[in-house]
Amino acid sequence: MGGDLGPRATVRGAAGAALQDPRLALRLFGPRARLEREIASLPRRLAAAGSRMEVVDAPGEIAPGLRPSEALRHGGDSSMARMLDCLAAGEACAAISAGNTGALMALGRRALGTVAGIPRPAISTAIPTREQGRCYLLDLGANVEASAERLVDFARMGEVMARRVDGIARPRVALLNVGVEGTKGTASVRQADARLREIPGLDYRGYVEGDGIFAGAADVVVCDGFVGNAVLKASEGLARMLVARVQQTFEAHWGSRLVGLAARPALRRLRAELDPVRYNGASLLGLAGIVVKSHGGADAEGFRYAVLRAVQEVEHDLPRSLARELGGKDATISRRAGTAGDDDSQ
Amino acid sequence: MGGDLGPRATVRGAAGAALQDPRLALRLFGPRARLEREIASLPRRLAAAGSRMEVVDAPGEIAPGLRPSEALRHGGDSSMARMLDCLAAGEACAAISAGNTGALMALGRRALGTVAGIPRPAISTAIPTREQGRCYLLDLGANVEASAERLVDFARMGEVMARRVDGIARPRVALLNVGVEGTKGTASVRQADARLREIPGLDYRGYVEGDGIFAGAADVVVCDGFVGNAVLKASEGLARMLVARVQQTFEAHWGSRLVGLAARPALRRLRAELDPVRYNGASLLGLAGIVVKSHGGADAEGFRYAVLRAVQEVEHDLPRSLARELGGKDATISRRAGTAGDDDSQ
């Protein structure tokens, strides 16, 4: 039910993903009548996916502004919580939502626990970089402050994700900082830097500055959730502004006729390319289950990407990889009551 | 002497500014022979400015990676320190540098002191926003952490700058946060929010998220220097990546001939518009003197903007306005030994 565009975008996006991947069977949580109406009114090219979509009636909703603590107290019957219970019960491989991120994280921790004793899961998405590359940025807002220990957790989780899911043999890991010299940054960043240098086998590259993210300086860039959130959202805002300027520039200088004839398809492609942060699901990394957050402003296309992102993580059994690699040989995926560290600042 | 492109860019940029503003008289600090060579080899269109540029021989340099503490100990004879001494002695109205920012701030505090008892100056630049607007973002890296009190100082300084220098009658001020709800963010951001609400006459708009910066949601957006630096540099990196993609897209889809005939001027204009964060000087706000930092990667054009930015601040006597408005009626610009709070994490 989540997302700024409502269930139409999520249902159509889910249908698009189902058509693209014939293995998918989808269970949709929300008010039955509303969802069935959306399925019945799928455009013709998506209609065939309707038969692979099952509706679970869950009329309770998590409001966009609801605090995580409130969601934990009163959200047990919401469509979001019902979806996560289904995942926790092993009836699904992954859960995808475009709803309230803080609530999704809090309810996800309670339903699923975390892997390998990770106390604070993180949110990560792939940022497009030069040369058609990608870079995982984390945390994006689950932890507005992060100690050195947490930054090290984020780095290790991101590294496992880049290696396992994207098949990068030796992902390059970096810490976001205000300069590349060793004396720069906060105490927690400098301590995390010292610890990361000591982890055997980790291709740790030290500090990168903000422009290094898009320059492709690393495959995984780590920061606290306040910084990551600000960087991600500012990037979205800048991309949107620049798209508008590109359009204005070409309309002003080349005339609307030429733009009409030749430029529209190119401009449409550009718009998708220039607003790329919107077109990736964000992984809730460290949960003992696969949960992907779709951008709240995403259209059907954005939600389709989020579903396919979840499929990728299922294919590579990401939570098990995280549990094995971060928890040592004996680690299993452990269920934890995830309320201890919860707060509403996320 | 500073900047990635060396003194050629600064000398040509300074000459460009001098031609544009006939009131300007410029004193250039650096190795005499090098600077005189650059002045002698000014392109014809800039050559007339040479007679308004005086060279002060100052062969000592501040290296780009030098720590602020090192600059304070050993940089007293550098071209940067000599320039700031000249400003402190009242022989100049403003100082402009493309060199080491941390050193400029540390040496600037020692030479000039701060206004109105401001313990921590901040760095601010104007970010372009939609609808041809601008937004001052601060701090950009002088303070990697900032208490609520410091965030309030930054907000008040930014507000005075937007009102006095840009003539905005009631600048809208906002705090950067990870969400707009009151429960979001770090303790210092939430405390600063509470204090800003109590300042009479301040048009405080509460929280904005990262995309609000470019959307023009406020005239002044306040954050700590770690966040501001990450946001600014990530925006630069994204803008550069998108410029490259725009160019590729049009070359691929419209063919090089059409691009050659019609698109090049438009693309050139776009490149300047899309990389706008580079084309503003950054103000060292709170110093008892006007010091503008030009982007280290700026070309002559970027340095010209930085000089003209300094001129604007001189015209509106920004330090005196800050002293008067932030310090109450009796406040004067007070010289302070600025070493107490200096550290190398900036």
Descriptors:
eight-stranded mixed beta sheet, 346 residues, Isopropylmalate Dehydrogenase, phosphate:acyl-[acyl carrier protein] acyltransferase activity (chains A, B), alpha/beta, globular, homodimer
Topology summary:
Two copies of one chain form a homodimer.
Chain A: H1 7-20, E1 26-30, H2 32-40, H3 44-47, E2 53-57, H4 68-74, H5 79-88, E3 94-97, H6 101-112, E4 122-129, E5 133-138, H7 148-164, E6 172-176, H8 187-196, E7 203-208, H9 210-215, E8 220-222, H10 225-274, E9 282-285, E10 290-293, H11 300-315, H12 318-327
Parallel strand pairs in A: 1-2, 3-10, 5-8, 6-7, 6-8
Antiparallel strand pairs in A: 4-5, 4-9, 9-10
Helix pairs in contact in A: 1-2, 1-11, 4-6, 5-6, 7-8, 7-12
Keywords (chains A, B): Acyltransferase, Cytoplasm, Lipid biosynthesis, Lipid metabolism, Phospholipid biosynthesis, Phospholipid metabolism, Transferase
Pathway (chains A, B): Lipid metabolism; phospholipid metabolism
Protein name (chains A, B): Phosphate acyltransferase
